[in-house]
Amino acid sequence: MIGDRQPGHRYLVLGICCLSLFIVGIDSTAVNLALPSIADDLHASPPQLQWVIDAYTLVLASLLMLAGSTGDRFGRRKVFQIGLVLFGIGSLLCSAAPTPELLIGARMLQAIGGSMLNPVAMSIITNTFRAPRERAQAIGVWGGVVGLSMALGPVIGGALVDIVGWRSIFWLNIPVVIAAVVLTTRYVPESRAERSRRLDPLAQLLVILLLASVIFAIIEGRSLGWTSTTVIGCFAAAATATVVLVIHESRRDEPLLDPRFFRSVPFTSAALSAILGFSALAGFLFLNTLYLQDVRGLTPLHAGLMTLPMAVATAVFAPLSGRIVGTRGPRLPMMLAGGGIGLSAALLMQVDTDTSLVYLGFAYLAFGIGFGLLNAPITNAAVSGMPREQAGVAAAIASTSRQVGSSLGVAVLPAIALANLDGPLAAGLPAASHAAWAVMLGCGIGLLVLAVAATSTPALRSRERVAAELGAA
């Protein structure tokens, strides 16, 4: 059994999973620093730049739940390796893309591979560390690595773009993918759920329709017109897909998206927290990239270095958050996460065209502290109380929430800023972005509220009831 292996071997499995997810996290945020260079090289429009980011997160969010249940059914190691290979091929195609359209298509292939990594890796970790305390600490390490990789992405991306070029961001993935495939073959044992659920293709199509319609409408709404037939039709399609999905899943014995999971208040709070936190991160990275390079005139390298306070804070506080969750529970790190993100937003609401770089550094530091503390309690709440047989699906829902948040952040916050833009981007973006930072402040406040709600006595009782119901199913 996986759980009976020697501790050193178990931590090696954890390291392999973290290595694979580290490059995915770096890739997802490093591309932000390359956006101005991609725009110049491929003549990409602002909506196309948004799609370079959101095509990846949208496909990822759409397929994560399918990938989690597929790993539980057909073998977690097998699905994990397939995901690595597809991610590597997609990275290679991204590096060679001659047009924005082909780059967006290659990013979608990357995302198909990436969707097989996150939930399956979490399922492997959950089934490797079976003692509750060890599992919480391992999940804390995993969550910290994910958060750290996303925070380091802009720094590494800025350096690569400035020194080598934007295509080098994707070259970085190839050797790591090869090493991860080899190490997985040698050290990660195959595992499956003792009882996995049947595939649910209709639900999968409805999830894709729901997410794609909403994101397309938000990104293209400014250019097409918010009252245009296309945009209104997309929102109507999303609403219809939501209703049909709820009805369909409630009638299935083995749904793709099990509604019973959401009867657990901590689980639902974790999903909502992931959406809020990652919306804040994605919007923060996108808008700050434009601000630092197009408004302040910094090079990609210098823009990346400006995010160092965020990266360092995340590196310090992510593992600390895992330890706190393992010993004291999730409430404290969750509240501090909301406070850090909210404080950063309040500081950014005062930014103009010549704001001190030291002031910006404090805003980035506050965000890094908040985001560093966020991942471990989210991940722990998502899988705590769930049967190990459904670990892949539970982790996939939490991961889907992260990617939905990222997609919404890239779509909503820039849309708000661009809608308020008066004049050229370089002169008008700072003032236009204040409304977007106000939305990020709302995300921070929401995290504070959810931190209290998720750890209340009634919330914990709801988790126990759901765990008993799922265990008996």
Automatic annotation (TrEMBL):
Domain Major facilitator superfamily (MFS) profile, chain residue ranges per copy: 13-461
Assigned GO CC terms: plasma membrane
CDD domains named in the record: MFS_MMR_MDR_like
Record InterPro entries: EmrB-like, MFS, MFS_dom, MFS_trans_sf
Positions of transmembrane segments: 12-36, 48-67, 79-98, 104-126, 138-157, 169-189, 201-219, 225-247, 267-287, 299-320, 332-351, 357-378, 408-429, 435-455
Keywords: Cell membrane, Membrane, Transmembrane, Transmembrane helix, Transport
Topology within the bilayer: Multi-pass membrane protein
Intracellular or extracellular location(s): Cell membrane
Superkingdom to which the source organism belongs: Bacteria
Pfam families: MFS_1 (PF07690)
GO molecular function, one term: transmembrane transporter activity
Family indicated by similarity: Belongs to the major facilitator superfamily. EmrB family.
NCBIfam families: efflux_EmrB
Protein name stated in the entry: MFS transporter
Organism lineage: Bacteria, Bacillati, Actinomycetota, Actinomycetes, Nakamurellales
